[in-house]
Amino acid sequence: MIIVCPLNKVQPLIDRHGAKHVVTLLAPDTPHDAPQGITPGRHLKLYFHDIVQPMEGHVPPGAGDAEKMIAFFQDWDRKDPMLVHCWAGISRSTAAAYTALCMFRPGADEEELAFELRQASPSATPNRLIVSLADEVLGRNGRMVRAIEKIGRGADAFEGTPFVLRP
After folding, report:
1. pTM above 0.90, yes or no
2. What is the CATH number of the domain that holds 123?
3. Looking at residue 54, what is its pLDDT?
4. Cα torsion 65, 26, 5, 160: sign
């Protein structure tokens, strides 16, 4: 199980679901506490801004970030839940969760997985740069990007409602 949420819901959801792995996707200057009960080797921390093209003064996600995220997912035994979060639980975290779905269901159609994401979270607006980088690492030949374009922008929200995906 993958739990996707905003930063302010991390600890309560770890406690409720017994998550043992966490992916943190935040801006480099975002203050936050380490989640309790998660060992350092089970906590991936990636720091970049939620942007889809270079902007002065901002750090974009890069190919190395996508590679680290995918390697972290590959090392997950899926016995215990994983929690993926960003600031709002709308863009970076949903891109990561979509990447995990594509990884763990390699024979599934990318569009079907994108629509599954949309059904689970009406506000999900996966960061297209993260999806593009993951698409390249996974060798999906642009199919992940096209699928996310097809579901379009999610419903307007200041903060996403936590949701669960089953990879």
Report:
1. yes
2. 3.90.190.10
3. 87
4. negative
Structural domains in the chain (count): 1
CB 118 within 8 A of CB 152: no
Percent composition of the chain: helix, strand, coil (DSSP 3-state, to 5): 45, 15, 45
Domain interval for residue 160: 2-165
Residue-wise pLDDT for 54-65, tens only, equals: 899 999 999 999
pLDDT at 27 over 90: yes
User: Interior CA angle at 146 toward 100 and 27, to 5°?
Assistant: 55
Burial degree of 102 (CB within 10 A; 0-12, 13-18, 19+) = buried
Angle at 92 between CA 119 and CA 166, to 5 degrees: 40
Q: How confident is the model at residue 72 (pLDDT cuts 50, 70, 90)?
A: very high
User: By C-alpha distance, which of 152, 158, 19 is closest to 84?
Assistant: 19
For residue 60, what are its two tokens? 């974009």
CA distance 139 to 148: 16
Q: What is the chain's mean pLDDT, rounded?
A: 97
Q: CA of 110: how far to CAs of 3, 125, 129, 161, in Å? A: 20, 15, 16, 23
